[in-house]
């Protein structure tokens, strides 16, 4: 099962983190921009080429120490079809390097439309009798607030293709409580209800290490809720944004983990992507700086949660 592969990668590398590939042109060293714009002009195609070159350098520097990457689709879509092509090529390159890929698309629809999203990002598309993969990520973030109509199409695709999903439960943004913290007539909050739904949906995608193929997005900026949900959602693996630039640290993410050091993968995007700027080093060092920050993040979290062990 898809999430099992992520857990195995985390244990093998003793690193429960994911590098968010959310590139902006402002993050990319000048020499990469210059080469791409010389080839394609100051165009969407030139910008997309720079994103891809930048991403490949990061992936090369991180693939032996970080188990997963999480490209955010919006940062590619803003450059049109050229950017979407760079997203597809980034996914393919990371997977070829042995990394688990979570596409952060937060897709949300129902029926045939959600089936199309599922086919595009996780499954196959039929063309003249042939089944072809469009993006072929390992997992996709989804918005479950349309209810089970928006989740069920994904579950069948995940079961057939060995894929996974992460459902938005308690997100890291400051205004998340406007909806997610609202108390229902049953006494539970909206996010608690959504977390319970993840447990139920996950019964269709069981995993060999106790975590299903239906994960939950729970932000590092809400450690009390992380702790609460870890206790009440024993089979739901967490994707934890909000570490680093958004303010979360090792103490904040620690409640997401179980006694084996499993249960979550923690995302850092700007902290890794912009490490070379924070260090004020030469742009040619951007990948090495990203690696140093990824190691620092790994060591900080593992020092807090302890050795990561797969259950027998």
TrEMBL record:
Please name one Pfam family that this protein belongs to. Answer: OMPdecase
The UniProt catalytic activity note for this protein reads: orotidine 5'-phosphate + H(+) = UMP + CO2
What PROSITE patterns has UniProt attached to this entry? OMPDECASE
Pathway involvement?
Pyrimidine metabolism; UMP biosynthesis via de novo pathway; UMP from orotate: step 2/2
**EC number, as in UniProt:** 4.1.1.23
Top EC group: lyase
Electron transport as a keyword of this entry, yes or no, is no
Q: Where are the transmembrane segments?
A: none
CDD domains the record matches: OMP_decarboxylase_like
Note whether Signal occurs among the keywords: no
Fetch the SMART domains from UniProt: OMPdecase
Residues annotated as the enzyme's active site? 106
Cite the entry's keywords alphabetically. Decarboxylase, Lyase, Pyrimidine biosynthesis
Q: Which PANTHER family match?
A: OROTIDINE 5'-PHOSPHATE DECARBOXYLASE
Belongs to which family?
Belongs to the OMP decarboxylase family. Type 2 subfamily.
The record's section on HAMAP family has:
OMPdecase_type2 (MF_01215)
Q: What is this protein called?
A: Orotidine 5'-phosphate decarboxylase
The gene designation is pyrF
């Amino acid at each position: 099962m898809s999430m099992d592969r992520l857990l195995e990668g985390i244990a093998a590398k003793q690193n429960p983190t994911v590098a968010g590939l959310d590139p902006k042109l402002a993050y990319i060293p000048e020499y990469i921009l210059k080469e791409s714009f010389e080839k394609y002009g100051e165009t969407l195609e030139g910008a997309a080429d720079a994103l891809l070159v930048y991403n490949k350098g990061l992936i090369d520097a991180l693939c032996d120490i970080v188990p997963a990457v999480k490209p955010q689709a919006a940062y590619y879509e803003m450059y049109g079809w050229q950017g979407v092509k760079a997203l597809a090529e980034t996914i393919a390159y990371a997977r070829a390097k042995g990394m688990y890929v979570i596409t952060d698309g937060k897709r949300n629809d129902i029926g045939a439309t959600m089936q199309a999203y599922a086919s595009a990002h996780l499954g196959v598309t039929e063309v003249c009798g042939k089944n072809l993969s469009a993006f072929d990520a390992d997992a996709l973030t989804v918005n479950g607030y349309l209810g089970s109509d928006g989740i069920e199409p994904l579950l069948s695709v995940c079961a057939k293709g060995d894929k996974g999903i992460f459902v938005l439960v308690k997100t890291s943004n400051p205004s998340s409580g406007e909806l997610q913290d609202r108390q229902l007539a049953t006494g539970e909050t909206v996010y608690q209800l959504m977390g319970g739904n993840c447990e139920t949906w996950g019964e269709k995608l069981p995993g060999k290490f106790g975590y299903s193929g239906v994960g939950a997005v729970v932000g590092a900026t809400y450690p009390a809720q992380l702790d609460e949900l870890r206790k009440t959602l024993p089979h739901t693996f967490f994707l934890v944004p909000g570490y680093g630039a958004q303010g979360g640290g090792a103490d904040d993410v620690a409640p997401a983990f179980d006694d084996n050091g499993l249960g979550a993968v923690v995302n850092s995007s700007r902290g890794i992507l912009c490490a070379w700027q924070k260090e004020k080093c030469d742009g040619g060092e951007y990948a090495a700086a990203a690696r140093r920050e990824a190691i620092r993040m790994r060591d900080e979290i593992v020092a807090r949660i302890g050795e990561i062990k797969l259950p027998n």
